[in-house]
Specification:
By secondary structure, the protein is mainly beta. The chain has five helices and 22 strands. It has a 22-stranded antiparallel beta barrel, surrounded by four helices. Strand 12 and strand 13 form a beta hairpin. Helix 4 packs across helix 5. The chain is globular, with a radius of gyration of 24 Å.
């Protein structure tokens, strides 16, 4: 059964591999490849294996055996990046609980015909929290019902052509799928057509673009959702570093709305400002069918630090959020820090992946839980992050605030979970610090706090996590160390509080 499930989940990788194979003959000779197998061994003692409420805790020893494989490849016509881990868990005191969890992150792009036909694809597989009001697992070895496996894929061939320096046209067709091991999130597939026409370099002062986007989401055993948008935008350079922006259009969405009819004209006015070469600020305000809207984005890149801030409001779904890259991905933060010192993308990806693995860093920092729901919702999200890397110290700090309000009726694109899971407010802050004690020894500490509040009741849950560990390079391809963690949850609802203390010893091997 496990073999069949893995085959079905990884089936979308076949078209990705086929497109890379088509681009291979003309790029193989110049391609840079890195294939790194590995094996991670961990032994953990936890005093609360199931993250049970006080008085019901049960301790256990958890053994993890995790073979893994990392593949990197870049040629003149294709790019491939894939990481796979098979995490096998065994329990000393809990018979019959042994399990295997798969984690996959794969992305590929290829140029099939120069200046005409291209392909993008990605696939993912991993464990996700079902609800922000359940136990937030600090390690997948914990046995808890608030975790489920989520599988995603996206296949996107597209045509792109440059009309000299006048304009660029693109026709993109995308097919994607999202499925999970939980009933709260219905299996779904989506087909999408994206057509755009953008001005070229001939239009220096006044830049323009036109866009049409249509998506149909097909939910298993539930109503389909249609999202369509037609828009145009202008950008006028008032000075070399300051531009006025504007956009307008019409959107028509098809779902059973619980508020305003989900269609109508929209507009936005804003500005882009680059006060310095490595600093950019964008802001806009406008109106859509659900009300007034505001968006903001700012970034500053220094020699050893990156600062970013963003705020946006969007109509989206849980499945769409699972298809997007994580905003708290540790690799993304480190990639931004190394962009100036390591301009080569392949080498940068290698260094980031090796640093995260060898230092035993978490793959992501605290982030809002993408609640398992099949409803359309309005999401308002704000994120601020600061990342810095010096000779011996690496520091990443993130802050987020997210509000979600359902826009579709629960009985149509139904959410299996409680209504309080569908209308939520989430806030959080986290800090990750890594200190090189010596050329071969690193100390890592990670502290995080998050709060989830229900918009329809007075319930709020607070989650606090602290981890500290030391990793030492025993051999050029062997790292070992220990880590201490503490996890605590406090809730305004009785019976939902717990604490966990755990100690882990690990060996991380590359071959």
């Amino acid at each position: 059964m496990r073999i069949r499930r893995a085959y079905v989940c990884l089936f979308p990788l076949a078209p990705m591999a086929a497109c890379v194979a088509l681009a291979w003959p003309q790029s193989a000779s110049a391609a840079e490849w890195s294939i790194t197998p590995g094996l991670d061994l961990r032994e953990t003692y936890t005093d609360n294996l199931t993250l049970a409420s006080r008085g019901a805790e049960r301790s256990d020893f958890v053994t993890e055996v995790a073979p893994n494989l990392a593949v990197r490849g870049v040629g003149s016509r294709m790019h491939l990046n894939a990481d796979y881990v098979m995490r096998n868990f065994f329990y000393a005191r809990t018979s019959g609980a042994s399990n295997t969890q798969h984690q996959l992150h794969a992305a590929a792009d290829a140029t099939l015909v120069d200046d005409l036909l291209f392909f993008d694809g990605d696939a993912s597989l991993g464990q996700q929290a079902i609800s922000p009001f359940g136990a937030q697992v600090a390690d997948n070895g914990n046995l808890n019902g608030n975790q489920a496996e989520v599988r995603t894929y996206t296949l996107s061939p597209y045509l792109r052509h440059h009309f000299g320096h006048s304009a660029t046209a693109e026709l993109r067709v995308s097919c994607d799928g999202v499925s999970s091991s939980a009933d709260n999130l219905l299996d779904s597939q989506s087909n999408r057509v994206h057509i755009s026409l953008d001005s070229g370099r001939d239009f220096r002062a006044l830049q323009w673009s036109a866009l049409y986007d249509a998506q149909r989401i097909d939910y298993k055993s539930s109503d389909d959702v249609d999202l369509k948008r037609l828009s145009g935008s202008l950008r006028y350079l008032l000075t070399p570093r300051f531009a006025a922006t504007g956009s307008a259009g019409y959107e028509r969405n098809n779902y059973v709305a619980i508020g305003e009819k989900p269609e109508g004209a929209f507009w936005a006015l804003g500005a882009d400002w680059m006060p310095a070469q490595r600093t950019s600020i964008s802001i806009s305000a406008g109106r859509r069918y659900f009300g007034n809207t505001v968006s903001f984005a700012a970034q500053h890149r220094a020699r050893i630090a990156v600062f970013s801030a963003a705020y946006q409001e969007e109509i989206t779904t849980a499945r769409s959020q699972f298809l997007l890259p994580s905003t708290s991905d540790t690799a993304a933060f480190l990639d931004g820090l190394l962009m100036n010192s390591v301009p080569d993308k392949v080498e940068r990806e290698k260094q980031v992946s090796r640093f995260i693995h060898d230092a035993n860093l978490p793959p992501s920092l605290v982030a809002p839980v993408n609640t398992f729901s099949n409803r359309v919702f309005l999401q308002k999200s704000a994120n601020v992050s600061v990342a810095s890397r010096g000779t011996k110290n690496t520091l990443i700090v993130t802050v987020f605030h997210t509000e979600r309000d359902p826009q579709s009726a629960a009985g149509t694109t139904a959410s299996t979970g409680a209504l309080l899971d569908d209308a939520t407010r989430q806030n959080g802050v986290s800090a990750l610090w890594n200190w090189a004690l010596s050329p071969r020894t690193r100390l890592a500490a990670n502290a995080a706090f998050s709060r989830a509040s229900a918009a329809t009741s007075d319930r709020h849950d607070d989650n606090m996590t602290f981890r500290m560990g030391v990793a030492h390079q025993l051999h050029p391809k062997l790292n070992g160390g220990i880590e201490l963690r503490r996890l605590e949850k406090r809730s305004s609802q009785a019976g939902n509080e717990f604490r966990e203390n755990a100690l882990t010893a690990f060996l991380l091997m590359n071959f």
